[in-house]
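pinging the channel bc i need a second pair of eyes. not urgent but kinda urgent?? the chain im working w is below, pasted from the shared doc
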Amino acid sequence: MIKEISIQISPDQEKDSEFIKTKIFSELKKNSISFKPSEVETVFVKKSIDARHKNVKLFMRYKVYIGEKPGEEFSKLPEWKNADGKKSVIIVGSGPAGLFGAFKLLEYGIKPIIVERGSDTSTRKRDIAAISTKGVVDGNSNYCFGEGGAGTFSDGKLYTRSNKRGDISSVLKIFANFGADKKILTDAHPHIGTDRLPAIINSMREFIISKGGEFHFDTKCVDLIKEGNAVLGIRTENTKTKEAKEFRGDAVVLATGHSAPDIYKMIAKLSPESLEAKTFAVGVRAEHPRTLIDAIRFHGKPDASLGAAEYRFTTQQKDRGVYSFCMCPGGFVVPSQSGPDQIVVNGMSASGRNSKWSNAAVVVETRPEDIPGEYVNRAKELGCPALAGLLWRDHLEKLAADNGKGQKAPAQRIRDFVDGKESTDLPETSYTPGIVSSRLDQWIPKQIAERLAMCFKYINRDTMKGYLCDDGLLIALETRTSTPVRIARSKDSFECVGLANLYPCGEGSGYSGGIVSSAMDGENACVKLAEKLGC
């Protein structure tokens, strides 16, 4: 017999194996399950922390085997075949959707040819460092573009609620197989850490190549090769040498992420009906001393065994959602712009989550009807109304740059933001390019700024007293939690509605958000693609 059992314990009881065994036996008895202690074996499944009340509790889930031996459910991997090249698929983008799509194609013996506009992880690391040290942004190799996608150098968070997309554990097992800590299989909010993820991505790349796949870095997709309404391949340009090249295959998977406006504009020219506007979010990155967040979340009793505290909130302010996103406990705020005339911020944590700051995006729901008319009209002039949100986002990111200084981001103390005052000085920050004092409340669009201020007051009053404080810092802007555009695709086939043989997936398609949901979306698209190819 196999039974899943959940128990509740205090943090100081987590290492007491005899106590935990007694709790599990007690829970089995409550469920009227007969057993002999000598015949019971347990496998730890997942841990979550409940810090909602004064006494912090841990919820531990175990799979209990009674009279049976634990199986291979935590280690079984797919069977990947060697690709013989008889069928090949072009994958544009090497983020989680592209990589996991490639792994799925290998299950069918289909050759994945991955084309990535950015550089490999080692080159990309140097390009990212140049943003802080030299104030230089490479438009193709940065926090957004390059091997592994945006998540590679931005934390590697693996938590998702997308249970209906597929088997979340299968994605985690693959990451663990290529070097991630096995704890990701059991943690309630698993993350890999930006210090470990690049090496894992490299191992994944090497394996895909060993099975017959190809990788082409510094290779930007500039056009689709079409015959009638069918996509036969892509045209590319090498970002270093400017060499033009064509890649042809049986289909094209578009996994370009949420920061490639040129891809949307390319599709708008070829098939404007394939794009549709969607809700996205705009806000700031809120950074606090980690000790303050730990004290708030753990009720003034920080416990080193619990690690850095996480938080999450969502509110409604004036008929729009205002919520935290991508919370980075013990983390850093990082520059996520993909061009020299933009300022965009994001957050990340190393695997230890041990910096002296904690940060999170705090963003306001922005619907298509919220876009100013100027950008709606401009999109119509371009022949694709769905581009309005993208044009507005571009304006906001340039506005942030105008209110910063070079690559230094505009910032304001959170209390000054709410009170409508200039910050005469700013607290120390983890944001290495630097920050400059700016009246964010005066230039962030009114419908965004007002709701943010209302949210901070509400959170401070009702859920996280002390969050609104002098040491809290707001850094602008956070605009890329998701894309303002969706590439319309068939619900059944995952094929683009206006372009046959094109399979949009991942964050850039507008159908997922985050590493795991994007990975599963890439897998699902490639399953449908393989079915169409008769594999």
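so Residues 515-532 form the longest helix (18 residues). and The radius of gyration is 24 Å. — does that match what u expected or am i reading it wrong
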